[in-house]
Amino acid sequence: MTKVSQISPGQLTALLLTGRIAISMSFAPTMHQVSNGTDFFLSALLHGGFILLCILPVLWFGRRSGGAGTLDYAYVLWGKGGGTAVASGYALLCLLIQTMDLLRFNQFVSTTLTPGLSRVVLCAALVAVAFGAAFYGIQAVGRAASIVFFAVVVAVVGIALALLPEMEWIHFPPFLYDGMSPVLSGALEELPRTLEIALLGLALPYVAGKNGTAKAGALFAAGVVILSSLIQATSVGVLGDFSGMVLFPYYTAVTAAQVSILQRLDIVAAAVWLAALLIKTAFIGVLYLHCVGRMLGDKARLPAAVAGGAAVTVAGLFLGGFILQQERWFIWIVSAVLLGIFAVLLPLILTSLNRIDTISNAMELRGFGKNSKRTWYTQRPFARRDFIALGVGAALLLISLTVTIRFGRFYNPFL
């Protein structure tokens, strides 16, 4: 396993939560569009449970492998060819996640911010800065994520308190107003938007501590439930049903806040969200460069970063309209499949192969299969009481069958 710099479980939690909250702040929340009113709290809670279920195979694998990542273990079990195939899949997944985030950023800039700078320049600058930060390593990105995460929490809580007078409690009907089906649909719809947990197996070597990843996963699930609920409660409480008709309801709701000298808190929300998106892109860039380094060596990291950044920028700028139109069905299905493959299937396969390898080595060391006839460490022949027990059992079987067949169902104790 390649030696890498490590971060604390708290920094990993900050990295994951910062990236997830960036999606909740910048993308139209959809849980309340499926689970109406107050039911999105239940959807968020169920969503956190689904996250824990998805990361359990990775945690199980990490415990069995002693902290080795799925990519490192793939190279050990499947050799260079199999490991390169897994590394290629992970690298493409990293670029896909970055592309989807850039699509939302591009749409946000085009429809909401409309700055003086060109959106092409802004998108290219975001990707360039993120990939440049990735070269500083996981520790630098983790420290920056801790600071940005603190700013995100302060901003989300502060905006919620500022908008509290603007909220209408009529927008929050009783729980399970339309039954349990919308709650379940809302939780399932949000799960593929947490696609970064599919990279958790790749990030295992970067986390310090024996149970560091498990702690980070539990904190991440709890944080998603709390912060996503707060963000969506703010949007629905202020906008009501109108929140389902706008592209960025949280940003739209924030424009109504007026606090002290900050007459428009939407500027604060946009700045914090942009910083969170930058941290997420840089973190995934670190994992992307890790995959490239394992496939092609460290010298290929810089050309691969340039090529990957260019591909993400081009796709984010010129494929945005087509991809976002398909997000509610095609992209959701693709994301769900990728989440199942990299977060569930791959760790389970590697764990099973690890156990098979351990058992086969143990059998080989014990000389299993050396002789044509099996040998025994100890052999215990049948005694008289063993034959008596077999005879009693056979007699009881014959008696029960005779009584059942001859005297009918009345004597059948099972009917």
Task: Please outline what is shown here.
With 415 residues, the protein is mainly alpha-helical.
Helix content class? over 70%
Order of helices and strands: HHHHHHHHHHHHHH
In terms of DSSP E residues, the strand content is under 5%
Compute the number of strand runs: 0
User: Which structural class fits the helix and strand makeup?
Assistant: mainly alpha
First-to-last CA distance: 62 Å
Shape: globular
Note poorly predicted spans: 28-32, 411-415
Mean pLDDT across residues: 79
Helical region count?
Answer: 14
Largest sheet: none
Radius of gyration: 28 Å
Structure in words:
The chain contains 14 helices and no strands. It is mainly α and 415 residues long. The protein is globular.
